[in-house]
Every structure is written in structure tokens, then in C-alpha cells.
Amino acid sequence: MLYAVSPSTTAVSFPTRRHLKGHQFVPARISVSASLPASNGSKVEYTPWLIVGLGNPGNKYHGTRHNVGFEMIDLMSKAEGILLNTIQAKALIGLGSIGEVPVLLAKPQTYMNYSGESVCPHLSLVNYFGLKVGSLAAYYQVPLRHILLVYDEMSLPNGVMRIQPKGGHGHHNGLRSVMGHLDGCREFPRLCIGIGNPPGTMDMKAFLLQKFSPVERKQVDEALEQGIEAVRSLVLNGFNNNITRFNLGQKYKYHKV
To answer: Which of 43, 25, 42 has the alpha carbon at shortest distance from 34?
Structure first.
């Protein structure tokens, strides 16, 4: 049985689901597409987005600096009404839409350093988009330009965000894993959430796995809310002037004029 929203808006269809041990279900087969009637009677097709938040699974990591990518996905899930209730490709995922554009939200359950196993595992077969068969991106036919990674960034002040169309891994192990599974490709967008640097001689790992102070927590919560609007703008309109203004505003958000 197929379930779909009204064809006059976004068509995101869900097939019969299989139950697995320890998890709710995975889809046996799924089609993610969207179309609207254009003024001339033809249909406008929308390319889906895969939005992946990087983090570590488990309660012990909840609220830590290294898990802000997961937090963004949770907020997007709530804001857009997309239920995260499916396990596929070693990730917790949810299917829905932002406006008329179909989106797939994902939280890899492999732990940070192996995030690439969910987004694009090492397999020899490559599809039309240049993505390895078996990955979330390939399964849902999401091109690289529509894979948005969300993760923590120590090079940015706490609570400052930045959206880029491409870039390196910046020594971030989760991002490094994803790029490694994409054969070093860096041509995909990313949303960086600033968490600042460890104070003094504090160990970096201890800093990443530490929870925010009350002041830092407030800054990050405000940033995540701003990030939701930025992600909506990116999905609906691409890298336009709105994203440029967002990045500029973030860069100087703590600078008093």
C-alpha cells in the first residue's frame, strides 16, 4: 500500500514497511519525488534534498558540542513535521518536504568517525549521479549538490553559523569520513555550527564531548533556530543573496556597531 500527500502539493510516497529486530522498520522500496502543474499544463519536477546531521548516537552524547548536527535535524524534524522513525543504511531517517521540495532528514547511527558509511558506503557500483549504490544519496537519487551536511565547527565562534556550497573537511572526523566515502569529493554543501575552541590546554576530545555552559547553550539554541530558516531558504531557492546575507549576518552577529 502506498501513502502519499495530496498530488496538488508534494508527492512523497511511502511503500509497505518491513519490521526488523531492534528497529521500527525500513522501506522495501520508496520513491521520493515532487511535481506541480505549471501554468502551461506541464509538471514541474523537484529534485530531493538529503540533509544529514553529524553526531554520536546515545543519551550520553545528547547536548554535547559534537552533537549539534543531530540537534539541527531534530529541530528540522519538529519544525517541518517530518517523523524520524526509519532505520536505513545505518541511519535514523525521516521523509517529508520543505514547501514543495521533498527532503530526507538523516542522523547516522555509526558514531561520528564513521558517518560516511551511512551517507555513501564503500561499494564498487556507481549510479548516474556518481554516487555509490547502497548509500542514502544513491537510493533516493539525490545528486551531490543536494546533500547538505550539518556539523559542529571549532574554527567558528560559539553560536555562529556558515553555509558553504563546498569545501574541505577542516580536520573534522565526521566530515572526513563522508568525503573519504565519496572518494575525496568536496562538491557538496555544508552548514557549519560554531562551537569555539577548547580553552587553555583543555583536551580537544574532552571539549567536544562536553556540554555547553548556560550562556553557550543559549547562543547555540538561537543559532539553530536561525539555521532552520537558512536551510529552508537553501532548499527552496538555492545559493542566492539570502544565503549571502545569512552568512554575513552570522559573521558579525556578536560585533557591536
So the answer is: 43
User: In terms of C-beta density within 10 A (0-12 exposed, 13-18 middle, 19 or more buried), how is residue 193 classed?
Assistant: buried
Residue 188 is which amino acid?
F
- Where does 78-189 show beta strands of DSSP type E? 86-88, 91-98, 101-108, 147-153, 161-164
Q: What is the pLDDT of residues 30-73, one digit of tens each?
A: 445 544 445 555 556 789 999 999 999 999 999 999 999 999 99
The amino acid at 71: E
**Quick one: DSSP state of residue 171?**
T
* 125, 85, 69, 104: CA torsion to nearest 10: 50
Q: How many helices (H) and strands (E) does the chain have?
A: 7, 13
Burial (0-12, 13-18, 19+ Cβ within 10 Å), 92: buried
Q: Catalytic: 66? A: yes
**Among 23, 66, 122, 181, the one annotated catalytic:** 66
The C-alpha angle 64, 69, 74, rounded to 5 degrees, equals 95
pTM: 0.80
